[in-house]
Input
Amino acid sequence: MYTQLQLRDSSRPPVNVATLGKMKANGEKISCLTAYDASYAALIDEAGIDVVLVGDSLGMVIQGHDTTVPVTLDHIIYHSRAVAKGLFRPFQMADMPFMTYTSREQALQNAVRLMQEGGAKMVKLEGGAGQAEIVEFLARHDIPVCAHLGLRPQSVHKTGGFRVQGREEAAAERMRNDARLLQDAGADVVLLECIPPQLGEIITQELHVPVIGIGAGPHTDGQILVLYDILDITPGRKPRFVRNFMTGHDSPLAALQSFDRAVRDRSYPAAEHNF
Ligand code: KIV
Output
């Protein structure tokens, strides 16, 4: 009973929401990666990464789809349960897939499944101010939430593709407001995807909750990348913000350790990774 209390005093206490908040307050960078199975999860843990996301990017890198839209809740639960088996220290987050949070009740029911069946400790959902009511409802039920802003891959059929977001002043202003609104609604973490670095910096300064970026510049509190991208497994052209961490390393573990170091010493992302 209360193993978490005993583990708190161990040399590698598990990361939790409070740890992430402290890291932001202390100016320590948060390293995050996606994972989809137990073996890679164990390597990621060994490499010292803080947060693992079971992302709906699995629809693209595992299932071979063009978008994340075909991913279902059962797919995420299956992979999340596998990832949970491989993790001890990192904080596990799981994506709420397309159309699994269209009402407060549906969102709560599905978030509960991700936590109870998938072993997730936080759920991530995409959307701006329109999702504040859902975030508030989940937060009221003590479900830790990450709000995903900027490029929202579940909406690409509506928005017209995988494009940098927040370039125009009005769009940047809207994103800043959305981020504050979602934080005030109870989001514990905000994730920003594919936005100009200046906007990433402003939002990170304006929020008291940790901000994780992917293609959002060097100033966010943490960095996340898709595991298969940094191991150079993903076929085809990679987004500008991706760095191949296998370069100069002879094992996936060494590449993961290199990513972790590069995030902490701020050598990733470099200028060439910014929009
Ligand atoms: O699904 C995913 O992997 C994500 C990351 C790109 C942040 O949402």
In short: The chain has a mean pLDDT of 96.
